[in-house]
Structures are given as structure tokens and as C-alpha cells.
Amino acid sequence: MPPSPPPRRLQPRAPPPTLPASNPESAMALTARDLENLIRAAFPDARIRVEGDDGVHFAAEVIDESFRGKNRVEQQRAVYAALQGRMDGDRGELHALALTTKAPD
Question: CATH no. for residue 71?
Fold first, then answer.
């Protein structure tokens, strides 16, 4: 029986790329008003409430007739589309968004 080959040594992985620090004072920081304006551009007749003051963590409620008959995932995807890629981790503009969507009662 031939001898077994020596075990392969694994090469260390390169560390993951680091994202730019989220700094509310940076030029990339969003305000609640900025976020509301992005959403309003896509949903002009919606009732929109956005809260957040650190530039990267927000909570938003969007109530719009266009959500009627759509499930929650479809509704939220429509809002994320309105954010024009700002949820993208590489850009670092918007780290977290607690999002509530619904059609008017």
C-alpha cells in the first residue's frame, strides 16, 4: 500500500475588505428628510414618516394605495427600489432601515 500524501496546508484567507466608517458627519450621511424625499419621489401620494438622527439607522412607515393587494415583501421591495441602491453595503450610506409598509385602511 503506497504511503498517503502529506496533508495540504490551507492558505490563509485575506481579510474581508473594510467598509468606510459610518460617520454621521461624513458627506455620505443621510438625514431623515433625505430618506423621506427619496421615498416620496416614488410614492408621491403616500403618507410617510421617517425617524433617525445618526445618518445610517432609520425607521420608516410608508402607507400608500399602490400597496393594496401586494404582500409585505412586494411592498417593501418597492420601497427599497426607491432608495436607489443606498442600502448597498459598499456605499455605506444606509446601514439599517426598520420598514413598515401598508395600504391605507
Answer: 3.30.300.90
Structure pTM?
0.69
Amino acid at 97: L
Which range of residues forms the domain containing residue 59? 32-102
Torsion from C-alpha of 77, 94, 50, 101, nearest 10 degrees: 20
Nearest-angstrom CA–CA distance, 85 and 91: 8
DSSP state of 96: E
Helix (H) or strand (E) holding 81: helix 72-82
Domains identified in the chain, total number: 1
pLDDT (tens digit per residue) in 23-36? 444 445 789 999 99
